[in-house]
Specification:
This protein has helices at 14-29, 47-55, 67-71, 87-96, 111-124, 138-148, 180-183, 187-190, 192-202, 323-326, 336-353, 361-380; strands spanning 4-10, 36-43, 61-63, 77-80, 100-103, 128-130, 155-164, 206-214, 219-221, 240-242, 248-255, 260-266, 274-282, 285-290, 296-301, 312-315, 384-385. It is an alpha/beta fold and 392 residues long. The structure holds nicotinamide-adenine-dinucleotide. Nicotinamide-adenine-dinucleotide binds at residues 10-16, 43-46, 49, 66, 81-84, 86, 104-105, 131, 133, 190, 229.
């Protein structure tokens, strides 16, 4: 008999909806699954979100107070999709109640909060997952396979970036992402976390960084309470509020394996729209991937004797991991939310097997330890060692 896994979702915004849709899609995409996902209860402080949870997602119950999600006896897994600075309280309560916890990246709003959350889950012995969804892209898995198999030779340098236009418009609303008391840090918490996480996956740990940040747009129109996301726009005569975290963060990095790297993230840039991209260079080849064209990868292998022709475009298809779950054949594309389904399937599979999951909160610690070093470097103006922020 396949075990039922009761799921409680906290926060039914963009991510809460994406995960809820994933749980509903898992049975038809992964018929061999060893568990039955069961949406039990949703918590959101906004009335319209709770209505949506009941009406469209068919949660049997939706509550304003997230504590009822954590306390629900039929909930085995709590999925935390609220703004970052609320993660600590929610994850600590879920772990204390003995629930397995999936938390959206980067887990908490600051490295100190991530460390508290990781300790709480570790001490409670629950299984954890973190929303580093780009790890699951079929061509990212293939890139990792090529690197691990030595096809690129010794890795000499890495470029990781996440450039987004979501905050480029000065009239873009002052949503929670721009406020330290709700989001924690700015782009370094929001989107740079993905870029550095992928570097960890592909190339390994980072020893030292030198970094700088900036807030380019210091004031934005205030949203109406309970309305507006970071993609919405205000009017020039709206009341304005102060942006309290950074728009940009950039760093030079030295990997433990000796490779050199650069990282950049900006939310206030024109041109790139959602450019979560990396380039990996080695002694025998190179590869490059960009979320904006996530079904393509650029590959250069020096020993294939075609090196004068430059990069080859590799199209995603069912020969690469997971792709055939969604569409058969070559070059039939998959999309962003398909990565969330893979992510949720893999996390629930770990829970059903009773095994530690990767990426879990320990991987969240890996990123925020780099983030903490970047913050120190921005302050000091010098190179800083990456020191784990893990407690105990
Ligand atoms: N993995 C990714 O690619 C990705 C993408 C976007 C966001 N995220 C992460 O997901 C999380 C949520 O981001 P989002 O874009 O979905 O935000 P969002 O603003 O769209 O949704 C947040 C939801 O939380 C609800 N909420 C706020 N306070 C609450 C409370 N006290 N109790 C219950 N519900 C509350 C809001 O009403 C809203 O519905 C963040 O941690 C963010 O970093 C990850």
């Amino acid at each position: 008999m396949v075990p039922r896994l009761g799921i409680g979702v906290i926060g039914l915004g963009w991510m809460g909806q994406a995960h809820s849709r994933s749980y509903l899609r898992i049975p038809t995409l992964f018929p061999e699954r060893g568990f039955e996902p069961d949406l039990v209860i949703c918590g959101d402080s906004v009335d319209a979100r709770r209505d949506e949870a009941l009406r469209s997602f068919r949660f049997p119950e939706a509550v304003a107070d997230w504590r009822a999600v954590v306390a629900h006896p039929a909930v085995d897994v709590v999925t935390v999709c609220a703004p970052n600075m609320l993660h600590v309280e929610m994850c600590e309560a879920a772990a204390a109640a003995g629930k397995h916890v999936f938390c959206e990246k980067p887990v908490g709003g600051t490295p100190e909060q991530t460390a508290r959350i990781e300790r709480a889950a570790r001490e409670a012995g629950v299984i954890t997952g973190v929303g580093y969804n780009y790890r699951w892209a079929p061509l990212v898995r293939y890139a990792k396979q090529l690197i691990d198999d030595g096809d690129l030779g010794e890795i000499t340098n890495y470029r990781g970036r996440f450039f987004s236009m979501y905050g480029a418009d000065p009239l873009g609303l002052l949503s929670w992402r721009f406020l330290h008391d709700q989001a924690g840090y700015g782009v370094s918490t929001d989107i740079l976390s993905h870029a550095v996480d992928l570097a960890h996956l592909l190339v390994g740990p980072i020893d030292r960084v030198v970094a700088t940040g900036e807030t380019f747009i210091e004031q934005r129109p205030l949203p109406k309470p309970g309305e507006g996301t970071h993609y919405d726009r205000g009017a020039p005569d709206d009341p304005m509020g102060e942006v309290t975290n950074e728009d940009y963060m950039g760093a030079l990095a030295v990997f433990a394996g000796g490779a050199r790297g650069t990282f950049e993230a900006s939310r206030a840039i024109f041109g790139p729209q959602s450019q979560m991209a990396f380039e990996v260079y080695g002694t025998k080849g190179a590869l490059a991937w960009n979320l904006e064209t996530m079904n393509e990868m650029q590959l250069f292998l020096a020993d294939d004797r075609h090196f004068h022709d430059g990069y080859t475009t590799v199209y995603a298809g069912d020969r690469y991991p997971y792709h055939g779950r969604f569409v058969p054949g070559d070059a039939n594309s998959i999309g962003y939310e398909d990565l969330k389904v893979i992510e949720d399937y893999e996390f629930l599979s770990s829970v059903a097997r009773g095994e530690a999951h990767e990426p879990g909160f320990d991987h969240a610690i890996d990123y925020v330890s780099v983030q903490a070093a970047m913050m120190r470097s921005w302050e000091s103006g010098h190179w800083e060692d990456v020191v784990s922020v893990r407690i105990g």
